[in-house]
Write a structure and sequence with these properties.
With about 325 residues, this protein is α/β, with parallel strands linked by helices. The protein is built from 11 helices and 12 strands. It folds into 2 domains: about 5-100 and about 290-305, Rossmann fold (3-Layer(aba) Sandwich), CATH 3.40.50; about 105-280, Rossmann fold. Strand 10 (about 230-235), helix 10 (about 240-250) and strand 11 form a beta-alpha-beta unit. The chain starts with a strand and ends in a 10-residue tail after the last helix. It binds glyoxylic acid. Glyoxylic acid (GLV) binds near residues 55 and 77.
Length: about 325
């Protein structure tokens, strides 16, 4: 019997590919990891019954329309804003994602950006590498204390809660804002968004991207933040209005930003790379070998579950 056709859009770990090849006729390109153009995706998906995609593939209505035999989509990510879920629902195409396995790793990275912005790690590194370090001095690249400061978490899901737990070790006051109140409030106190923005020394964004969270942080919100505060975005580009943030950082209206995601990534607005007061990383919050491997395997588990007629392990609602 012919095996069902699976399109894997990007390079995945070889052990995961092996698991899939045992059950599917897999179309993949392990040699190159360049994003597929929309037309390439349309051509490749047309004969496919299964799709393994990533955050960087936009699976919109046109792509779905080209995939008339599509039975299921597994994305190797927790975020699903790149997939037209409404169109999938209308067509009865189930979608799975990769929650849980990346929670602690992503929370660690949120902390890496908190520390890097507070203590100006990127700037200090550029200073040393650039040969500018001529000797020790009291006021060289001074930062701000994290210990004992106030953390504001916008989005208190699994990753937000893991970030809050870590903040206890830093003796921080933790505020959060969320659509609904979290169950466990020991580690963090619920406040409205305005109070959080006015009070926090570090504001970290951990919300999914949606119409509701589009430009959640823009000019007006940045104006509420303390001039000494740092903004960290490990959520999605589009949650922040990048042009407004760039202007605020250029004007030193806030102290600094740690940014792992951007509105039109991988393209950055001209000006970001010239900022000293921004730590910029290429969407790597979940990028440890162990966690990316676990995300790959979980996507494969979901594909194999569907193929075997079992419930998906981690379906997207
Ligand atoms: C990464 O951004 C993810 O959604 O997993």
């Amino acid at each position: 019997m012919a095996r069902p056709r699976l399109l894997v859009t990007r390079r995945i770990y070889p052990d995961v590919l092996e698991r899939l090849i045992a059950h599917f006729e897999v179309s993949h390109n392990q040699e190159s990891d360049t994003p597929r153009s929309k037309q390439e995706l349309i051509d490749l998906i047309a004969p496919s019954e299964y799709l393994f995609c990533t955050v960087a593939d936009r699976i919109d209505a046109d792509i779905l329309a080209a995939a008339q035999g599509l039975k299921m989509i597994a994305t190797g990510a927790v975020g699903t804003n790149n997939i037209d879920l409404a169109a999938c629902r209308a067509r009865g195409i189930p979608v799975s994602n990769t929650p849980d396995v990346l929670t602690e790793t992503t929370a660690d990275f949120g902390w890496a950006l908190i520390m890097a912005t507070a203590r100006r790690i990127g700037e200090a590194e550029r200073y040393v590498r650039g040969g500018h370090w001529k000797g020790w001095s009291f006021d060289q690249i001074t930062g701000v204390d994290v210990y004992g400061s106030t953390l504001g978490i916008i989005g208190m899901g699994r990753i937000g809660a893991a970030i809050a737990r870590r903040a206890q070790g830093f003796g921080m006051q933790v505020l959060y804002h969320n659509r609904s109140r979290a169950q466990q409030e020991q580690a963090a106190r619920y406040v409205d968004k305005e109070t959080l923005l006015r009070s926090a020394d570090f504001v970290i964004l951990v919300v999914p991207y949606s119409q509701e969270t589009h430009h959640l942080i823009a000019k007006a919100e940045l104006a509420l933040m303390k001039p000494t505060a740092c903004l960290i975005n490990i959520a999605r580009g589009g949650v922040v209005n990048d042009a407004d943030l760039l202007a605020a950082l250029q004007a030193r209206q806030i102290r600094a930003a740690g940014l792992d995601v951007f509105e039109n990534e991988p393209a950055l607005l001209p000006g970001f790379c010239q900022l000293d007061n921004a730590v910029l990383t290429p969407h790597i919050a979940s990028a440890t070998r162990a966690t990316r491997g676990a995300m790959n395997h979980l996507a494969a588990d979901n594909l194999l579950a569907h193929l075997a007629g079992r419930p998906l392990k981690t379906p997207v609602a």
